[in-house]
């Protein structure tokens, strides 16, 4: 190996560039972990006391409608809508009288600066987002004993009988992908970009 003999250098020898590149992959949004995952049908007159915590909480309405209240502001969600409660936001969920909605909730940790995009936002989920949510529900139900009927259960209990291998990691990866795609679809591209392929690629 060659070694530097004079002056200050970042590397004392010719580096293994593939190692350096792997260590410096830029991550715009990174999910460090998750606290809870729910999917169930709420009662027609459900509401709970306001709460707040130091992590994110995403609410997605799979069927029906409900109100998400964040810092005393009411967000009406209908089927296909999702809302993100930011860390420290005082919030609660309230069903609309006479309607029993099916709701998916995931609480997760992320310190990424670009998560600011989701603050105080109600977003209509795209087809890609819905597919990722469905995949997360599948992975979670095959990895944990999910509290399908009890929203007061906070701790996730791993399945003792044949849990899905790498399920927890897959949940995080799919959640990150959903967040990235949601930002792209709603913000990153100012207008749809057309992609053209050469005849050689097509054939």
Give a description of the structure.
The protein is α+β, with helices and mostly antiparallel strands and 203 residues long. 25% of the residues lie in helices and 25% in strands. It contains four helices and eight strands, in the order αββββββββααα. α2 (127-143) packs antiparallel against α3. The longest helix has 22 residues, at 167-188. It is globular and about 75 Å long. It starts with 16 loop residues before the first helix and ends with a helix. The model has no long low-confidence stretch (mean pLDDT 86).
Secondary-structure blueprint of this entry?
Elements: H1 17-23, E1 33-41, E2 56-63, E3 65-70, E4 73-78, E5 81-85, E6 91-95, E7 102-109, E8 122-124, H2 127-143, H3 167-188, H4 199-202
Antiparallel strand pairs: 1-7, 2-5, 2-7, 3-4, 3-6, 5-8
Helix pairs in contact: 2-3
Describe the structure in brief.
25% of the residues lie in helices and 25% in strands.
């Amino acid at each position: 190996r060659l070694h530097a003999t004079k002056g200050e250098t970042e590397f004392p020898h010719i580096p293994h560039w593939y190692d350096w590149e792997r260590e410096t992959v830029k991550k715009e949004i990174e999910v460090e972990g998750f606290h809870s995952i729910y999917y169930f049908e709420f009662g027609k007159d459900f509401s709970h006391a306001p709460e707040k915590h130091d992590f994110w909480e995403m609410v997605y309405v799979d069927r029906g409608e409900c109100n998400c209240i964040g810092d005393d502001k009411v967000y009406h969600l209908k089927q296909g809508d999702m809302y993100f409660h930011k860390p420290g936001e005082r919030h609660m969920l309230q069903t609309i009288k006479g309607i029993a909605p099916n709701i998916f909730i995931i609480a997760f940790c992320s310190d990424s600066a670009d998560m600011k995009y989701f603050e105080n936002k109600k977003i209509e989920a795209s087809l890609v987002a819905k597919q990722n949510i469905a995949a997360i529900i599948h992975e979670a139900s095959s990895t944990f004993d999910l509290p399908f009927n009890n929203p007061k259960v906070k701790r996730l209990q791993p399945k003792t009988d044949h849990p899905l291998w790498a399920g927890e990691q897959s949940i995080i990866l799919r959640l990150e992908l959903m967040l990235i795609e949601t930002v792209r679809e709603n913000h990153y591209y100012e207008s749809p970009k057309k992609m053209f392929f050469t005849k050689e690629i097509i054939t």
